[in-house]
Amino acid sequence: MDTPTYRTADFDFVLPPTSVAQSPNDRRDSSRLMIVERTSGRIRHGRFGDLAGMIPSGDALVLNTTRVIRARLLGARRSGASAEVMLLKSLGNDCWEAMVHPGSKLKAGRVVHVAPGFDAEILGSTERGTRVVRLTADMPIADAIDRYGHVPLPPYIARADVPADAERYQTVYARELGSVAAPTAGLHFTPELLGTLADQGVRRANVVLHVGAGTFKPIEVDDVTQHRMHEEWYEVSENTAEILNATRDAGRSIWAVGTTSVRTLETNAAASGRFHADAGETGIFIYPPYTWRAVDKIITNFHLPRSTLLMLVAAFAGHELTMEAYRLGVREGYRFYSYGDAMVIL
Fold first, then answer.
1. Would you give the DSSP letter of residue 336?
2. What is the dihedral of CA 282, 288, 291, 292, to 10 degrees?
């Protein structure tokens, strides 16, 4: 049988603007949960808190503990006109890769004044059209970003950030600073739900993947195999590798929370499915068909049409079932994207 091939258009679906969540639910784990069974093709509906009764003792839950930085810097050019610097990735020595606006005005040598004593100087451009900027401040740079930066809400949230976003656009287990977007599947977890799972014998394994610009980068080619991901930094600790290998040895399942955890595990795992301590950058792009090595179940949010994240889900659940689930999600009024509802694929 020939292996199916897919075009970018095969991952399109109609999404009304009203389906895009603009703010979080009052309670994290009250979001809806679509339950997709790969083997039977059955689709059920529940609440995120139902996961407490779905993950068996001895299974491992993999969480990405990255923390979102206040990466959106709003300021002014020397002329007084407004300007924006969106930090993407630290390059060391207070230099960052960044997206800037207006791009035509912010060439090498220009300066964006973010706040008194806090400036961003444009040093040059990268091959992909982003900028290299140097930050200077009269305090530690990390403190200046935290004090004057804004929460980098995704562009499909059509509002300015508010104080509540500083807490709600982080997972409750966020630790290592470095992301410019949240690993949003994890936003649904509460300390109480995590505690319940731990009390029931579910093992927790932490990884880190700092989410970068690739999260928002559209696919601009019809042939998905020609798309190239931005690389993102990840880490798998010795302790996490030991937990995951012990889970495998016991014949138990590995549940990855979010596509970032999925990409980290699939980058790290050997062909045999064994894990090891590792750190580096990954540009892994998962799309169907794909041979899975590391992940048994996925907890995720609903993603954009024609996106690399939707392609990853389709590689796991199957293209036809995935697109059926997404069309059903639209009809049933699920909330989409970062502050939206969740899906578990079994």
1. B
2. 70
CATH of domain 8-68+167-345: 3.40.1780.10
Structure token digits, residue 322: 């995935």
Q: What is the pLDDT of residue 2?
A: 60
CA–CA–CA angle 210, 300, 85 (5° rounding): 35
Q: How is 252-263 classified by DSSP, letter by letter?
A: --EEEEHHHHHH
Note whether 326 and 34 are within 8 A (CB). no
99's tokens: 């997206």
User: For residues 313 and 303, is the Cβ–Cβ distance under 8 A?
Assistant: yes
Phi, psi of 91 (to 5 degrees): -110, 0
Cross-strand pairs, 177: 67
Residues linked to residue 279 through DSSP beta bridges, in sequence order: 235
What pLDDT score was predicted for residue 230? 85
Per DSSP, the three-state class of 34 is strand
Query: What are the residue ranges of CATH 2.40.10.240 in the chain?
Result: 72-148
Instruction: Give ranges for CATH 3.40.1780.10 in the chain.
Output: 8-68+167-345
Q: Percent helix, strand and coil across the chain, each rounded to 5?
A: 25, 30, 45
Say whether pTM exceeds 0.85.
yes
Enter the CATH code of domain 72-148.
2.40.10.240
Per-residue pLDDT at 4 = 74
